[in-house]
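hiii, so i know i said id send this last week but things got crazy w the move. better late than never?? heres the sequnce for the chain we talked about at the cafe, plus the structure i predicted for it. fair warning i was half asleep when i ran it
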Amino acid sequence: MRIIAISSGKGGVGKTTLACNIGLAIAEQNKRVLMIDGDLGLANVDIHFGVRPMHHLGDVLQGKSIKECITPLMKNIDLIAGGSGLVELTHLNAFQRRELINQVQDLQFSYDYAIIDTSSGIYEHVLHLNAVADECIIVLTQDPSSFADAYAMIKVLHQKYKLQNFKVVCNQMKGMRGEQLFIKFAEVVERFLSVRLSLLGSLPFDENLQKAQQQQRTIMRQTTNSPAAQIFREIAVELVAESALGGAHNSFSEGTGQKTSGLAAIFKPATGHA
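okay and structure toks below
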């Protein structure tokens, strides 16, 4: 299973919209996708898919099997909902953590991809989710605060977790090409940090996408022939192709520089201890 974390330094940049549509686009390629809502306080992936999960990760701590907490979304794509206000998931004791890890390991071979929609910002649990991922995708817009916050996130992930590879998606572009924004951003980042950035895709301002966001729906289901839907498909094709070629993994355990142990590592503490 390949783990993809989608993050942003700033909220409101279209991170969840990107995560949901990329998940659908990968599932279209006959790959099994597990969506994980990593925004434990304000989970909303379920809303974008128009479902009401019966259970979420918090229920696992109350004795439910993690398999009972998986919500089917459509062909080839399922969801583990984050629930709402589940701050306790970021403060698990050793027993709770071991139980979650044991159950999650059973899912390891049931899916080809796990896509994590993280919270925005540089909170510890957000950084940890990025650190255990094979791919870190940063969403960037023309807003100066998005620019600054994305730089801050990459800086912390590089300095604390030694991550070096980041993919960037430029979103909500108006009057400026995504390539131009990416070059400007990369020049600043790579001047001060020893990291490698690559442009994964650029989404222009699309009225259909804006309408889908307002209606809290995925554009891949609503208007499949829109420019944005086509770009989501192109991004998914690139991610799957890179995975097939054995693209470099980007996951490290803090202080060790070693690859973490897949999906179960999501629920390990950031220090790597049980």
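btw Residues 32 and 110 are 8 Å apart (CA to CA). thought thatd interest u
miss u guys!!
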